């Protein structure tokens, strides 16, 4: 295992590895970390008890973060005609049809979200090997294959993000920047956890959420109490009253 840097070790010393923290305690502890030279992204990792080898236990969807991600989201839209104009008016960064498909085939993937109209999917489907591994392939299940491209672009720009389980049944979701105010991070965290609870597959067996860890890009993880999944922000407000 590679030796960690001094800053990482100093931050790790602040964390009690034998306990799980409440969501508010975990975020307050994050804010005490010595920061890196850039504004780190805060990410939540939720380990579920889902057996993702079964299609009915896979988890995938979108969630709107109340405070966004703290960065500019770049959106590419595959559309023609009026839909293309609508996408441009909504603020899409790249809009095109066959020309945009060809551009991606030639290696262009400098965007965060890809949206497509249904009529474009026969062409966009050819990009699966490129966009799929990057998690950017348009999908009707998460609202990125739609006739309402203007709304989809606006949602993406406002901080609507996609989540899904990986091969180990873990969901990795960014919830903002370390520079965010504690309450903003907590509200984003609450939105993610409440959405994952809402989307629990009917076929899920046993304990649904096994563990939750929150960590900045260059820092150690903090274990969060996996039983604290409801009324997260309300609990903090009540304690402060």
UniProtKB/TrEMBL annotation:
Give the gene that encodes this protein: rplA
NCBIfam families found in the cross-reference section: rplA_bact
Question: What species is this protein from?
Answer: Thermoleophilum album
Q: Which InterPro entries match?
A: Ribosom_uL1_bac-type (IPR005878), Ribosomal_uL1 (IPR002143), Ribosomal_uL1-like (IPR023674), Ribosomal_uL1/biogenesis (IPR028364), Ribosomal_uL1_3-a/b-sand (IPR016095)
Gene Ontology cellular-component terms listed:
large ribosomal subunit
The domain of life for this entry's organism is: Bacteria
- Please provide the record's keywords in A-Z order: Repressor, Ribonucleoprotein, Ribosomal protein, RNA-binding, rRNA-binding, Translation regulation, tRNA-binding
Describe the function of this protein: Protein L1 is also a translational repressor protein, it controls the translation of the L11 operon by binding to its mRNA.
Q: Which SUPFAM superfamilies match?
A: Ribosomal protein L1
The name this protein goes by in its record: Large ribosomal subunit protein uL1
Among HAMAP family, the record links this protein to: Ribosomal_uL1_B (MF_01318_B)
